[in-house]
Amino acid sequence: MNATNIATNALKTIQRNGTTYTLTRQTVTTGASTPWKKSGSSDATHTLNGILDDYRDAERDGEIIRMSDRRYLVAASGLSVVPQPTDTITDGSTKLEIISVNAIRAKSTDVCYYLQGRN
Hints:
Elements: H1 3-17, E1 19-30, E2 38-52, E3 70-75, E4 88-91, E5 94-106, E6 109-118
Antiparallel strand pairs: 1-2, 1-4, 2-3, 3-6, 4-5, 5-6
């Protein structure tokens, strides 16, 4: 099975068993004459297919993984952007900042991402 098929199968499995989340990326624009000043920002939203794969108590150290942190497994196939730290993920009415992103790859193709979210 090639890497693209693996990514597609992961997406189908997550769609069957998971839910959808919203990824928000804020883009800050600057003024041409004063590039150090922010002149505005805009939010772009993207739909993620994922599963809440929360941390176990033994993984929560209070510093790197805090007590309120959440871990999500999201499918890479079909995403228009790669999640990044500082993006936010919305789970129901809860908005969390993405602290870290870890990719699961088959050869050079991203299959899934683990996202660490923090309120």
